[in-house]
Write a structure and sequence with these properties.
Rossmann fold; seven-stranded parallel β-sheet; five-stranded parallel β-sheet; 9 helices; binds flavin-adenine dinucleotide; Rossmann-like_a/b/a_fold; electron transport; ETF_alpha_N
Amino acid sequence: MILVIAEHDHKTLKSSTLNAVTAAQQIAAAESANIQLLVVGYQCQAAAEMGRSIAGVSQVLVCDAAHYASQLAEEVTEAIVPLATGFSHIIFPATSYGKNIAPRLAATLDVAQISDITQVCDAQTFVRPIYAGNALETVQNNGHQLVISVRCSAFSPAKYSEQNAPIKSVNGAAVFGVSQHISQSLTPFSRPELTTSKIVISGGRGLSSKENFQLIEKIADQLGAAIGASRAAVDAGYVPNDYQVGQTGKIIAPDLYIAVGISGAIQHIAGMKESKLIVAINKDKDAPIFQIADYGIVGDLFQILPELEKALV
Ligand SMILES: Cc1cc2nc3c(=O)[nH]c(=O)nc-3n(C[C@H](O)[C@H](O)[C@H](O)COP(=O)(O)OP(=O)(O)OC[C@H]3O[C@@H](n4cnc5c(N)ncnc54)[C@H](O)[C@@H]3O)c2cc1C
């Protein structure tokens, strides 16, 4: 049996859950297992209801209690541990949510974690990128139980279907209490979410200032795109940290990725090279980003972006 840990906001499932279910389906096919989905949250019935119609999910387990409201890794792990027995694979999306909980769960269960898989070879064998995506490693682990995180961009989302898998309430653990949720500051977004948007336009150090990022914003609004950034742009304070694309930021694979004033360091490319179409704008014709770009414009972004904006009206 395979357990997928749902990422959700208590009301709706995040699309990353669907990517994790697809990976689970591939493992399930290899070992004829069934898939259960676990929703740990507070007043999260609506999220569980969504889960019951995901194709391939045979049962939804719901663990609903006030101390799961903040989804702290310490509390969620305690909820999963007593349920883990009997599951050969416990699968998380390799998002901030999954990366926060999976290692703690693996350590508590004293089993191996296989991180960030991009391919399922069989039920014990997986491919995962290493060295910032410059090499692919095939890992086999014959342990009785595996904790796995799934690179979402490598697995298409599972489909919703007509089915109504049963929902079962399960008991959570008592309050663990080693950590406390103090506050949350959310970046207000009127644009599509970076990890799920079909079009992303990213800016780098070449933008030179926070104010100049408005040039990117205008194009993003015209294209209905999400905005990303290089780490240099984030470190310089041009945009918030959660815009960062790359090895230590978000790993994305949109249909169209436009890199503006970004040199194309390997750590940045690790986060966007799976994009279906890559367009680069850079004044340096030798910038490494052009090596992976499908279309390149060599020139000054301060001239090109306003022209692009006009052309898109
Ligand atoms: C452990 C580690 C992890 C990292 N993780 C990440 C990560 O997740 N994501 C990430 O992005 N980086 C990451 N980095 C940093 C990475 O190595 C680079 O430093 C960073 O990506 C550079 O950002 P940049 O391309 O915006 O800046 P630069 O490399 O400075 O490039 C700026 C580009 O803008 C161009 N430019 C300047 N002015 C103009 C103009 N007017 N018009 C057109 N083009 C112009 C320049 O020609 C240049 O190519 C990491 C580094 C380390 C060591």
